[in-house]
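Thread: Modeling a multi-component assembly for a lab meeting

Hi all, long-time lurker, first post. My supervisor asked me to bring a structural picture of a complex we are working on to next week's group meeting, and I have zero experience with this. I have the sequence lines for every component (1154 residues in total). Could someone generate the structure of the whole assembly? Inputs are pasted exactly as I received them:
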Amino acid sequence: MTRLILTRLLQAAAVCAVVATSVFVLLQYAPGDPFAASLDGTDVPPSVRAEWRARYGFDLPPVERFTRWAGALTQGQLGYAPSQHRAVSAVLADAIPRTLLLVGVALALGFALGVLTGLLQARHRGRWPDRVLGALTLGGVAIPEFLLGLLAMTWLGARWRFFPVAGLASEGDVTAWPLWERALDHLWHLALPAGVLAISVAARVARHQRTALLGVLSEDFIRTARSKGLGEWAVLWRHALPNAIGPVLALLGLALPSLVGGAVLIEKIFGWPGMGLTLFDALLSRDYPLILAATLLASIIAVVARALTDLVAELVAPRRARTS
Amino acid sequence: MRRLALALFCLAAACRGRDAGSAGGTLIVSAGADAETLFPPLAVGNQGRALIELIYDKLADIGPALNTIGDAGFVPRLAQRWEWSADSLVITFHLDPRARWHDGRAVTARDVQYAFGVWTDSTVGAAQRASLATVDSIVTPDSLTARVHYRVRTPEQFYALVYTLIPLPAHRLAALADTALRDAPEVRAPVGSGPFRFVSWTPRARLELAANDEYYRGRPRLDGVVFSVAAQGATVAAKLFSGEADFLEQLSPPDFAQLAAHADVRAQPYGGFDYGFMQFNTRDPRDGARPHPLFADLAMRRALTMAVDRATLVRSAFDTLARPAIGPFSRTQWTADTTLTGIAFDARRAADLLDSLGWRVGKDGVFRERNGRALAFTILVPASSRPRVAAAVLLQAQFKSAGARVSLEQVDFNAFLDKQHRFGFDALMGGVRTSPSPRGVREFWGSPGPGRGAQNWGRWSNAAFDAHVDSALAATSTAAIRAQFRVAYQAAIDDAPAIWLYEPRMFAGVHRRLNVGTLRPDAWWSGVADWSIDPAQRLPRDRRAASTP
Amino acid sequence: MAARTWRRLFDDRLARVAATALGCAALAALLAPWIARHDPTLQPDPVALRLVAPSWEHLMGTDPYSRDVFSRLLHGARVSLGVAAGSMLLAATLGTALGALAAVVGGWVDSLVSGLVDVLIAVPRLLIVVALVATFGALSPWWLVVLLGGTGWLTTARIVRAELRENLQREYVLAARALGATEWRITWQHLLPAVAPQVAVAAALALAAVVPLEAALSFVGLGVQPPLPSWGNILLDGADYLTSAWWLVVFPVAAITGTVGAALVLADRLRAAIAGEGYES
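Re: Modeling a multi-component assembly
Sure thing. I ran the full set together rather than chain by chain. Output:
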């Protein structure tokens, strides 16, 4: 067992190393550097740029730069993000909680909504509620997320002023508010970005949930339950759902890494500087220490999430366990 | 005794109430980008400059007329008064004894001297270092007197100094090496001398300032200023329209279309110092030693300029929010001359000129070719700039009717700058934000060489232009300066290093609850200390937490 | 077995509707030069005819440059659908090859490929594509096919690997092996045809993913270069006018959503056909 875990770990580390190296190699060919924009002023002599590049090690040969970065990494140092004038760890410490919150709320909301929709569709399968919801969920998956975001921002935010357009929290004497009020305010500002994300998550989940439920509903044990005189909701809720939730949970596992990867365009549109926007900015400013650290982190989370998903799938798949 | 205390308390409350009537409220600025730095020498972007100039005071500020010659119109700031030596090579500044840094220490002449040292230290990389090139040294006879010695006399010597140099708190920064300043924590949480003090900075999200209660020129009327950042253009405007922000630096044409639906937002014009153009690379992008196969030829540049209908282009891309540009300057500059003769749009003459150059319409009936070579080139465009992209798309179609096959290369801003700095382009969509001084033209359009042309990415060179710009900058009377610039501008227009396209008219989006004075074209933020928010229209967000100085 | 699946799919009404919708879109793209009444890049009068609402002359109105949106949408279908189809083919091929490699060779190759898939799925694909575009500069549609296809093979590889590993344990494979067939021969002759329907599902999903991605790439300004129309950059031109020029948004979005929806339905029905189910009604 220990051996197995150890090999898994080694493999995971190898994959992360491969990813980090290829990202690094790719970045070598990207034109520009983090200083281009700030040195675009009129009178900045080329020597200054050379000096700045030297100060952050941008003038070293790529191989040496990489080994230095990797060396620092082994000592737990993520390096310095020149585009933000601060340590990479500080940047990530700001961005990660925001993305966790945004994507976390969106996933929770989306899964709850999606599972319910799927249940409702299965309950009324083939009749109009199923068809209407089916069309809606199909549309929800198919419509580009950023467009939904723009529409929500323009109409629900700016025009009708139902929700705040953008930002992390209200302005004013927020720091003096009681904690719960500040938390609510935070969630209030999440309404549009998390809502838009949740809609697209819910649509995907509902489609999976419906299919899984219908698959289970045709099985013998459901027929038995029905013959016992159980109501349709009770059958769905107590017998079908527990057996059909597996694939949906697998979907959740697939979505977990986006807790770190973030939602690039939604974060950009709603001014929510989480990991997606941070990475996007870092890419455009060629801030390679930040890009490398963020990709590495995302890779690690992905590998761990994958392992966790496998584990959960084993635990909640009673049917498969029975047959095998 | 208790009654007395109560009376006193009521009095105090009444006073506070009256205060709240005239002062108070927090201005929220919807910003499209975060400040790249709060360290004055390194600021290049508008957000950074705005914040820095709210936090720090200069020695003197340019007057509303934006005069840059001598010291006419300049208003005292940290310097209460100044006097010139008889030969104009020395200016003595007398600092305001009431001026304090936000930590309570007095502003001294040493702070001026220290700032000068930082600005001129080549390892710092100050953006406007060249503006201080004529200053030899600054000496401090006493703590409130800073004496500036110049190497040479120039008409703009006063402007160049006070517009650029911002006194820095030597007592906080001098202990640090100049090279460490860029990333120092002291610079991220600056201590300034201006009307607002720094409170907090959440990168990429918001930056908060609070009124400096001890400000030597009187406390600002606003309690605070918050720059609220959004990365998406549409979001920046939406925050203004939703009422979450009070001020937006520039409304775009699509934003303008939305104004009608939002009665509580108005547009306020304020000039602007930008102009946009399509710049020709006169040298071969692959080999700088060789001339560009197309654009080294003046006739070709003129023909292409004639083929462009700028009035239509500007009207389509900007509606009425821009005017066609005239030459290498902005109409807001005092040297601007609207009577110069540009190369007029004339499709017929453009076609004839191209024909005479040997570029004839080919078999497809659309595009021209010469000796089997197509008339084709690429325009480099920064994808992040909507106006430049729009102008490029319109240009592309207009060039097509003239028989030129133009492709657009839309790249992210970093790649754009990189290609620009390497001169790796045929033509590019450029934009310049000038300053009140006409001097900048030498950097952008002067022949590449010492002291000029540092940003002349097209490597265009014209001796007559250089000579007239030089004599203009050396002249002393405004009439002479104008006359010399007129000749220089005309030379640039005739020699067509670029197609001068548009000059945006700046319109700020302002919430009606906010009272702003006139906005200065070079710095809309210059009067923020006098802005106020109508007490009847205060919002919950105007309340501020007990301040922690 | 696979043949039965295709048969069932063909009999499925909903699948036929979706396939017809995709077919119509493809046909419209192919016939664009003959259907469109205007040159999609022509700017007849960028001042007077700018942002004109739909009319008989301009069925879907005009854009901010006075170009005919209907023509742009049709020609944009060539670019958008062409890029989508090309990258789908590339993704399916790459995914099948890598998935098969992982399943058949196993060992460290397997762990590398599956690990890579896990990690790359975790990073938003838009970011990967933006990184590549930033590196290689402005893109021609051909390059876009390579980039989008090169980043779209992950799900296919995952599915193919899983299916192949299951099939490798089946009797017919064991029998073939006993008869002395090499692994590659078995894979090529038996396994791949058997998983073809699953690959088709993955390909349909890849198509459904790549159309909005092209739009998103255009939205950040790094998509198909003007004046070539694509659904994404038509939408980008409209994004500034959400409240004033609805036709710039509604039509491209309808095209994108319709295509993606049809691809999703097709994937769904195909999956049902594999499982041996008819349309549940």
